[in-house]
Amino acid sequence: MIEILNGGTQTTIQDSGRHGLRHLGMPASGAADKFSFALANWMAGNRWDAPALECALGGLHIRFTSDTTFGLAGAEMWAQVNGQNIKNFTAISVHKGDILTLSFARDGCRAYIAIAGGLKIPEFMASVSTYLPAKIGGIDGRALKAGDKLPISHRPREMPRSIPKGFIPNLSRHVVLRSLPAPEWDGLDKASRRHLFVSPFHASSATDRMGSRLRGDKISMSKQMTEVSMTSSPLIPGTLQVPADGQPILALADGHCTGGYPRILQVIRADLWLLGQIAPGSQVSFRRCLSEDAPQILKARNSFYNGLIDGFSF
Amino acid sequence: MPLKKNQSLNTARNTVQDPHLLDYGDSSVLIHYDLPAGTHYSADINNTIHALAQALRTSQNWLEIVPAYDSLLCQFDMSKITLSAAKSSIKKHIKNLKPKPKSTQNVIEIPVAYGGAHGPDIDAIQKTSKLSHKALVKLHAETLYNVCMLGFIPGFSFLSEAPEPLHHPRHATPRAHVPAGSIGIAGWQTGIYGLDSPGGWQIIGRTPLKLFDPSREDPFLIKAGDKIQFIPIDAKFFDGFSV
Questions:
Q1: Is A236–B30 a contact, with Cβ atoms under 8 angstroms apart?
Q2: Could you give all domains of chain B from N- to C-terminal order, each with its CATH number?
Q3: How much is the ipTM here?
């Protein structure tokens, strides 16, 4: 078991998410940075998609009530065990009574803590992922708080291990997202098509698991587009929408399933994990990707990591 | 009716013209139907979309099939098919779609307490429509609605067009709290809130039924493609329904 001493800014229980339910208005949720989540589980010797803790921005303190091992991955948060610094992207053995503390996020937004064996949490619609707006998943569908006690499951597992050199991702306060046109791309005015890829945006304080409001050069749609109001249409994580004020919104893991603003860009699948590392204040840039390159980029990434993490794909 | 024009072009098959297939990033295709000029909703198009969604779901290549008013999102599994294969598969399904597909015949009766504390905005709509309370309720409830899509929050049901006198713009500033089950109007649309949430729709009534209840075996009461019949109830019976 582990005991939460301090939930921090927002710590939730996540797995790979509940997929295929967007037609019911239910987003997939799941780890916002699926890649760091998978690495944390791999280090702990778990299946890549075992339930783990996702801590946004920092402040999480937990106590272990038995000897165990955990994998730590994602944003650097100056983690310590009993006041001793520990390294990010490593597996750490702890004893009964040891206390893990995360400070604040530096080069990203979310850290993942996977306990050997995985957390034992009841599933809702085939996933334990916490989705706060509907109060489902995790513990009563809410963020974790002091006093919560989380049981660990004891499924057969591999020995804990460390990530080989070259497999650790580089996180930064400047997130670069390769993108392709989304359905209303053609409705952008000409100047905005240029601005979009030249000047970086800043993620505003309105940045959470649902989406990130970006601040930067005003992005405008052509006159024709602004005159007709759009009928609500489906949305997916990684879509950049432009409301009338010209400050775009990037949809994340818990984002709405439908929306009424023009959709101009879609982040390629291989880069979707990076969305989870956008913190308030991060710089966000978009890079144009060629549509024929996107499947190749994905294939290359998947084959590189498949040898390491069984069953995982971006 | 602009629909007439399409009928003459395509009398043998269907009043609905073939849709556009738009690329949506590297792993999705958006099927978009043009509405007849000057209209904002077409039941024929929406029925076609739900029939197409059903046909596409028979394949394992899709991760998400999400129908909306005049569009349908198809997210494919990039490890199984390519974008061009996804598009040809969609084209094939569009071609093979039966003429005049009917939406499912599943009619769900939804009891609604109109007005009062459950429908705080009904007075505003009464004013613009110049209808009496009774006439307004009758007009809203006697229409059989299509469930065009679910979205926004789990269970939120976007329904087909409300009768024209009831059309009303959203609140300029959304309410911080709209209770689950509230029935609202936004422009020409009418809909039901699946969960307590902030929202800007004009609230005219509320159903005691839970559209989304995680404790039920099937948490979703309503699916896109269903039909909705509202049954007006007296506010005093509202609590009796809440089981």
A1: no
A2: 3-96 (3.30.1360.40), 107-241 (2.40.100.10)
A3: 0.94
